[in-house]
Amino acid sequence: MRTPVTIIGAGLGGLTLARVLHVHGIPATVYEAETSPSARAQGGMLDIHDYNGQLALEAAGLMDEFRSIILEGRQAMRVIDRDGTVVFEEADDGTGGRPEVQRGELRRILLDSLPAGTVRWGHKVSGTRALGDGRYEVTFADGTTTVTGLLVGADGAWSRVRPLLSTATPEYTGTSCVETYLYEADTRHPAAAKTVGGGSMMAPSPGREIFAHRESGDTLHIYVMLSRPQDWFAAVDFTDAAAVTTRIAAEFDGWAPELTSLITDGDTAPVLRSFHALPAELRWDRVPGVTLLGDAAHLQAPNGEGANLAMLDGAELGKALAAHPDDTEAALTEYEQAMFPRSAEVATFEGAEMQGIDSDNNTAHGLLNMMAEKGR
After folding, report:
1. Which residue numbers delimit the FAD-binding domain (predicted)?
2. 40 appears as a binding residue in the annotation
């Protein structure tokens, strides 16, 4: 390929693209806003699926490295009613197709697989503009610029590359999440640790839900989902951890204490994360020399597929560019024609199946019925 690839964003999708390109001998540069690989915590656990995320890692030649970071036993799952009754439990026998890893470790093996200097840290994009003839100028916050003939936006929900292709912007889904952690849970929070078990735990209810995951060691990562307007959360002072905890816990009044303790006993200040999404059927006309992947292309409410889809996007785009070394537009067309329906199918299927936490069916028994219908 005569045109080096410029990738905006060193998340899992952008790094997978860079790695697959490297495997095929195609040069790429990744520009990342963060100042270093350790500048920010990289989130919690990810289940990497055998039908998308693992296919991407195979294309990247990193399956051995991936297997080395799998946390055994974390595919175990239990569903608990609001009164504390365990209504479903599934052990991890090692045969499941969704092994769990820490996001930070997955990002590390991708970074380690790239030539030194591939990622340019501390390059926050402030804008992009078309120069004509399929060329683009990217401007960074420090005033510097770069010009490229092949630009890939892997820069997430609020992509600075997306406006080159579409006027669509993410909209609030109606649900937000409050996160906290419990450390050394087996000794310091034994009741909570027992409730969560060895993998993940879900306690659903209409309009609210508690989800917890056992991460590496005996760390519990807690996600408290609430279906509330953004103004509701704006009225909560998140600089006052104790007040936030009290306010959020009040929404679970009457729930079993071993469940509410997952909120009240947190060892870290609660962090608010609002869920946004792009239209499920988002498309754009082919624009020479530019495309998107991952959340930049098809942001969805969390459904377990986001990271997997981003990685598969990166791998498929990389393979398409390698397959059409003298015809970038053919490669981008091939990639987008497969990516659009793939991501829309996931968004539509998950939306119909999960129905959102507002649904009257968002209960422990409702979740069991849904799982039975899906043949789990």
Report:
1. 2-347
2. yes
